[in-house]
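REQUEST ID: PR-0412
SUBMITTED BY: lab tech R.K.
PRIORITY: routine
TASK: structure prediction, single protein chain
INPUT:
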Amino acid sequence: MLTLHVADASPGTAVLVDGALVAAVGPHEELAAAHPDARLRRWPGIMTPGLLNPYGPELLEQAYHPDPREADRLGTEPLFGLRARALLASGPSARGASARRGVQRLLAHGTVAVAGELRSREALDAVRRAGIALAGRPAALPGTPALSPVPLVLLPSLAVGKPARFAVFDVPDRDALVREGASTCVATVVAGRLVHRRR
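STATUS: complete
OUTPUT:
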């Protein structure tokens, strides 16, 4: 089934998805006219190719992402350092659950690819199951590990026949996205599937 995604602040960059692939990219009106039976998903903000987070190992193997049931004791933000190592050392199930929660948080921030060498089976499984792409990264990184890193790294433009990976951010333009950060994400699509939608 065809799905047409359009964002209100960038109607010239609508994306038509067929299964897991991009079928077309172009103005919303043209794509809607050419494919009147496509399911329409309208979003506030701007359409982007999604983000690359360069801190894959730091966020998925070295950080502990608390379960919501642990929020009263551990908070809701990722934990780093000695406390994270102690929590992750409790066993593979703790590492796997943390990595899965970390992946969900990355998706909620418009991340469709991570960089850095993942070595743990738990992190690799979580990334592969979600369909997040893996990439190499430079030896030196400019900032600190974060779900909304500075600077934000947008992936190259979407292309027909390529995997349907993209994110929509509720901002008026890319300058606002840079200022306000990745927490403005309202939708993330990976392999043609809507894997995050802000409620």
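NOTES: The mean pLDDT is 95.
REVIEWED BY: pending
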